[in-house]
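Appendix B. One record, verbatim.
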Amino acid sequence: MLNILSAKYGYSAENDSANNVNVTVENRPVMVMVDHGTDAEWEAKAVEQQRRLVSGEAHEPNLNAPR
C-alpha cells in the first residue's frame, strides 16, 4: 500500500535521507527564582495572613508582583 501512495503522491520512506532536517533550538532560562525567606519566615507570614483573614482585618490583596 505504501508503494502505491509513494508513486501516486510522492511520499517517501521515513528513513529516506532527503527528508531528514536538523533543527537547533536556543535554550533560554525562563524561570526566575525569588527568595521569600526561610521556612519559618514564610510560615509566620502565612499565619499572620490567615489571622487577618479570619478576624476581618484583611484588605484588598496587592496584585502587583514585586520586581
